[in-house]
Specification:
The structure is a single chain. The chain is mainly α. Strands 1-5-4 form a 3-stranded mixed beta sheet, with no helix packed on it. A two-stranded antiparallel sheet has the order 2-3. Helix 2 packs antiparallel against helix 15 and helix 3 packs antiparallel against helix 15.
Length: 543
């Protein structure tokens, strides 16, 4: 709740409390969110390799609470806040160091939790039990529902508190989110005796490096006539509990890593098992899917930056109540709160009768629907911006209603419902057991690159349009939206999103899902301890 509430309103905090200009406010926020999502990979790696997912959540959650506490202190202390200077950024000296330190800690804390929390929850379901297998699909839906419910509270109550009294209550908003985050992690700690905890294994990056290195070394060797001749440890002779994965014909050059040379003793850097090679193949097949969802997250960044600034120039009244513009993102959240239970309880069981798929439709089909809707959302955003700007120039005292933004937010909210849940479930189910935290963090890696790409687009389009425009001003220059061409930027993203959908379609239609035998082979045995239930991977795969 704290993260979402702060993210959608921080662009106003940067503009009206720290006195950043329009593009600096937007880029600071997108860089922060990009860093946060990128650092989710750190949390996923640590929880898969060194600590279990529960401990990773607790440690990084502590950093998040610390960061929010520091932001509370800065927002409350006049000595840590700048005065207007007319420049792109007025922060300097110790206040700047304090500010960017708190942002770095926030990115690290939230990112680490995002990289480990989804997999921790999914570990509580047994994939080989038919009832729990269906529950796993619902889990990701309800995970999103709980997130958006908290975010709805954040974008209404907390944002209202923060922006009340002419932006003088930001410290109260930060304080509320810090306390809420602290209580959330306390509840997480209380549930420890009941959790199934996955035991970390070897480093995923080390296993990947071994496959690539050995495959390159064996580049001159010929493929064996039969895949059964490739190296695999017999489960009866192995002390490893890692589930075996069946051989596939894709990316056959990696198979050379599983060729054991004559008179060669098996060792990790001389030969790899078929299972280890297939793990790398799975991750490689995921790369085009990750890349195809980047543009969608670039579009999301605009709804959390420029659209909030649009709302600040529109009529915020709903009757006699004044709605903070930063609370407008509650519209897609309300849509999602209503639609997620309907989707999970009505749509999925109905479609499942025809498709026999536990989730109703495949994960990649869900993502495809989300990509189409994101392009539509950007097109609508462009039309709304034209209407807003024309009315503002015609009569600045009678701006259009803030709720015109509801169209673009509502459609993108539905897009996010399909895409985010589809990707989390896809990465978790397709990944090897020992890489599930790392693989679910791929969802956030795509978001990270999308937010960074937003900054690149803003700066790049400003630079190019400044050269070609008769006014010699960029589309997104200065702080006055009425003198900008934000609508053209939205059209640029709408067209780019449509082209990206066809790119995604190309890769999604060629993606080969893991077979049921592969997934059933990844059974988990549960060893009860004083601290909960430790999951150990079994050996029901093929040798």
């Amino acid at each position: 709740m704290g993260f979402v509430a702060n993210m959608v309103s921080l662009v106003l905090y940067f503009s009206y409390k720290l006195y950043f200009d329009l593009s600096t406010s937007a880029n600071t926020l997108t860089n922060l969110m990009g860093s946060t999502f990128l650092l989710s990979m750190v949390g996923g790696f640590i929880s898969d390799t060194y600590l279990n997912r529960f401990l990773t959540c607790v440690i990084f959650g502590t950093l998040e609470v610390l960061a929010l506490s520091m932001m509370t202190i800065q927002a409350h202390s006049e000595s840590l806040l700048p005065t207007p200077c007319g420049k792109s950024s007025c922060l300097k000296g110790g206040a700047a160091v304090y500010f960017y330190t708190s942002l770095c800690l926030l990115a690290l804390g939230v990112g680490g939790v995002k990289g480990s929390m989804p997999a921790l929850g999914a570990d509580q379901f047994d994939a080989k039990d038919p009832k729990e297998a269906k529950g796993l699909g619902s889990y990701f839906n309800w995970l999103l529902l709980s997130s958006v419910t908290g975010a709805a509270i954040g974008t209404t109550v907390i944002v209202w508190v923060s922006t009340n009294k002419n932006n003088h209550n930001w410290w109260k908003g930060f304080l509320i989110t810090a306390v809420a985050a602290f209580l959330g992690y306390v509840f997480l700690l209380l549930g420890k005796p009941f959790y199934r905890l996955h035991v970390p294994k070897d480093s995923p990056f080390m296993r990947i490096a071994q496959v690539i290195t050995v495959a390159v070394k064996n580049g001159g060797l010929s493929h064996p006539e039969s895949p059964s001749e490739l190296y695999e440890i017999n489960e009866k002779d192995s002390e490893s509990t890692t589930a075996k994965i069946a051989h596939t014909q894709q990316l056959r050059w990696l198979d050379k890593a599983a060729i054991l040379g004559q008179n060669t003793e098996p060792s990790p850097w001389k030969v790899c098992t078929v299972t280890q090679v297939e793990e790398v193949k799975v991750l490689t097949r995921m790369i085009p899917i990750i890349g195809s969802t980047i543009i969608l997250n670039t579009c999301m960044a605009q709804l959390q930056t420029f659209s909030v600034q649009q709302g600040y120039r529109m009529d915020p009244h709903l009757g006699s109540f004044k709605v903070p513009s930063a609370s407008i993102p509650v519209i897609p959240l309300i849509f999602m709160i209503i639609l997620i239970p309907i989707y999970d309880r009505l749509f999925v069981p109905f479609i499942r009768k025809f498709t026999n798929h536990p989730s109703g439709i495949t994960q990649l089909q869900r993502v495809g629907l989300g990509l189409v809707l994101s392009s539509l959302s950007m097109a609508i955003a462009a039309l709304v911006e034209v209407k807003r700007r024309n009315q503002s120039l015609k009569n600045p005292l009678q701006p259009i209603s803030l709720f015109w933004l509801g169209f673009q937010y509502g459609i993108f909210g539905i897009a996010d419902m399909f895409t985010l849940v589809g990707l989390l479930e896809f990465y978790y189910k397709e990944a090897p057991v020992g890489m599930r935290s790392l693989s679910t963090s791929f969802t956030f890696i795509s978001q990270a690159i999308g937010y960074f790409l937003s900054s690149v687009f803003v700066d790049g389009i400003n630079s190019v349009s400044r050269r070609i425009a008769p006014s010699r001003k960029g589309w997104l220059h200065g702080q006055d939206l009425d003198r900008n061409n934000l609508n053209l930027f939205f059209w640029f993203l709408a067209i780019l999103s449509a082209l990206n959908f066809f790119n995604y379609l190309f890769w999604a239609m060629r993606y080969k899902y893991k077979t049921d035998d592969d997934q059933n082979g990844e059974e988990d045995s549960c060893k009860v301890t004083d601290g909960g239930c430790l999951l150990e991977e079994s050996t029901n795969g093929k040798s």
